[in-house]
Amino acid sequence: MRRLSAFTYIIFALCATCAGTIHPGGMTIAERFQPPGGYARKQYRPESFQAFLRSIPLKEYGAPVLLYDGRKKPADVHVSVLDVPILKKNLVQCADAILLLRAEYLFRNRRYDEITFSITNGMPVPFRKFARGYRLKVRGSSAVWRKGRRESGYTREVLGEYLEFMYAYAGTLSLSRDLKRTPVSDIDIGDVFIQGGSPGHAVIVIDMAINAKTGKKMMLLAQSYMPSQEIHILKSFTADSPWYGVEDGDLETPEWHFKRNSLKRFKSDEGG
After folding, report:
1. Per-residue pLDDT, 58
2. Range with the poorest average pLDDT among 92-106, 113-127, 228-242
3. What is the largest CA-CA distance in the chain?
4. Which of 36, 189, 214, 220 has the fewest Cβ atoms surrounding its Cβ within 10 A?
5. Burial (0-12, 13-18, 19+ Cβ within 10 Å), 231
6. Helices (H), strands (E): how many in the chain?
């Protein structure tokens, strides 16, 4: 766990009332995590990305984070694990987990044409091309579309093949380019704190609560990490609380330090 600097403007609240309440029997984010005192969740349209993230099922409380090969993650940084299967390959890391959540949301809502992400050379790769039977042949820094006797259609199988390709050839750098910078004052569920590069990292805002009297906001953050591992909700630095206070400054998480102005949003996100 990173050591905190006195000069770092950290996004968390130093008070017991900010911890909120955890209901171990809850099997979704909304059911398991009660917002801190004085805070309440904003309501969203059922078909929104925000509502989708908040309703993702969780593994039973206390479940460890598993790596792609079945081993337990050694670092104790999480409060819950999303019940979202990952490949048994070292492919689904931080940016890949966010691509997975976004693609799954769009696929469930049949917004197939919006499933488009870029690979590291900057080339956009739309899911609809895979659905039409095309595949990309990558050689060095170049990629060429080829059509052959490949499975086609807007199916789970094709989506899985598309995502596995993206996991291999996308990353924090390409995801950062796909997103638009967003001021912290406008933060919403589904936004991403991201540092593109090698190494880089990204965490997604998976839930939020607002204090109606003060206007202050708190958030839950989720991530994958290296090596490939299950997506999990992070602890904050307030005891075992998962809630982070939202401030316009640097963000310190258990495994990464994000500098100010690291918040971004999917360009096609229509909000709640």
Report:
1. 98
2. 228-242
3. 60
4. 214
5. buried
6. 6, 17
Whole-number Å distance between alpha carbons of 226 and 201: 10
* Residue spans of alpha helices (H) in the chain: 29-32, 49-54, 94-108, 127-131, 156-169, 172-178
pLDDT at 240: 63
CA distance 208 to 58: 17
> Is the omega angle on the peptide bond into residue 227 within 30 degrees of 0, that is, cis?
yes
Residues sharing a CB contact under 8 Å with residue 178, sequence separation 6 or more, in sequence order: 117, 118, 266, 267
Query: Would the pLDDT of 230 be above 80?
Result: yes
At CA 29, angle to CA 224 and CA 37, rounded to 5?
Answer: 115
Q: What 8-state DSSP symbol labels residue 63? A: P
Is-contact 29 50, C-beta < 8 A?
no
SS3 state of residue 174: helix
CB proximity list for 120: less than 8 A, separation 6 or greater: 169, 170, 171, 173, 174
pLDDT score, position 239: 64
Q: If DSSP codes are grouped into helix, strand and coil, which group holds residue 142? A: strand
